[in-house]
Write a structure and sequence with these properties.
Number of helices: 15
Strand content: under 5%
Radius of gyration: 23 Å
Number of strands: 2
CATH topology: ABC transporter involved in vitamin B12 uptake, BtuC
Shape: globular
């Protein structure tokens, strides 16, 4: 029980349950099939991107450029495919976006490892560069009619929920399976691979990780490249979900994803974070974003609530880090006299 009470996941779960009870009690609409499918649909994109930023924050890195990477990749791939009249497999387009995103993300990693500057500053700069290229060089525009493979994918669903009384339908896109795949890959990587352990070690203490034999330069480049890959996939996902390519549709999306990761227990100081916690954070953010109207609250208050959640998440994360540091300092002070006595006995 003590271990459970120390984890952010527990408190986020409690808040989610309380919100569900409140929404269901006030509107009676939360557990309708339409609302549940809409909630699952809304979690696809933030879930994919939040898992990427979770890995970066665990590695003690802050990335605010991934929305720009997502936007430039989705526009470039969609524009080329549409202009060329592409009719091949749709996975080729997703692969192209993932590769392009990986390259752009790797640039962030190389600059961070080479310049040794705060990653927030580096990604702010590259974000501006990517947006400038998209708007100034590529002359981005809204693409309403996309290539046939993307159009077909946007109309492919796992199932469609229908409200018998109102006749409203809520389809669950097949891209929900992409979110499941990303969850499995990230979960296995962080929990069961040496690469995952090295990411945690680097985030906890880069100097100690280097002395332990971990390739810290590779780790730093990898986490940004992986985030870029997920950003590329996320950009194409956004295009398919909306049925059109709107280049600036993800502007400011980094705040939602960082807030979800921090709420789920990922510490900004690095070294701590879980897939389960980040997904709970995403779920909480989407419940607030999608269901405020069911509580009679205007949707524009969602940004206010997001800001409050960011402050709460950072506050809890900072408190936990400070508490852990105090416990460590106390244990060091307790063991110091014993070590001194042992050395004195050996000397005698």
């Amino acid at each position: 029980m003590k271990k459970l009470l120390k984890r952010n996941e527990f408190y986020v779960s409690v808040v989610i349950v309380l919100l569900i009870i409140l929404i269901q009690g006030k509107s009676g609409q939360f557990f309708t099939s339409n609302n549940l499918v809409d909630l699952a649909r809304s979690c696809i994109l933030p879930g994919i991107l939040t898992l990427g930023i979770t890995i970066e924050i665990i590695a003690h890195s802050i990335d605010v450029s991934f929305p720009a990477i997502a936007m430039i990749t989705m526009y470039s791939v969609t524009e080329v495919a549409t202009s060329a009249g592409y009719t091949g497999p749709v996975w080729i387009l997703f692969l192209a976006a993932a590769l392009m995103g990986t390259v752009l993300g790797s640039i962030n990693g190389v600059l961070a490892a080479w310049l040794k500057l705060p990653t927030l500053i580096i990604t702010l700069a590259t974000s501006s560069i990517y947006m400038g290229i998209m708007q100034g060089v590529l002359k981005c525009r809204v693409i309403a009619v996309m290539a046939d493979p993307l159009e077909r994918l946007s109309e492919t669903y796992l199932f469609v929920a229908q409200n018998k009384e109102s006749g409203l339908t809520s389809p669950l896109p097949v891209l929900f399976l992409l979110l499941i795949a990303v969850i499995i890959v990230v979960g296995v990587m962080l929990k069961y691979t040496m690469l995952g352990r090295s990411i945690y070690a680097f985030g906890g203490d880069p100097v100690s990780a280097q002395r332990a034999g971990f390739n810290t330069v590779f780790i730093q480049i990898f986490v940004f490249a992986f985030m870029g890959c997920l950003a590329g996939l996320g950009g194409m996902t956004r295009t398919v979900l909306t049925g059109s390519c709107q280049p600036t549709t993800l502007d400011g999306y980094e705040m939602t994803c960082i807030a979800a990761a921090v709420l789920g227990g990922t510490r900004l100081s690095g070294g701590v974070g879980t897939v389960k916690g980040s997904l709970l954070g995403v779920l909480l953010m989407m419940i607030v974003s999608n269901n405020l109207i069911l509580l009679g609250i205007p949707t524009y208050w969602s940004k206010f609530v997001t800001g409050v959640f960011i402050i709460l998440g950072i506050g809890i994360s900072s408190y936990q880090a400070l508490r852990a540091q105090r416990v460590l300092s106390a244990s060091v002070l307790e063991t110091a006299p014993a070590e001194k006595d042992a050395k004195e006995a050996v000397r005698k």
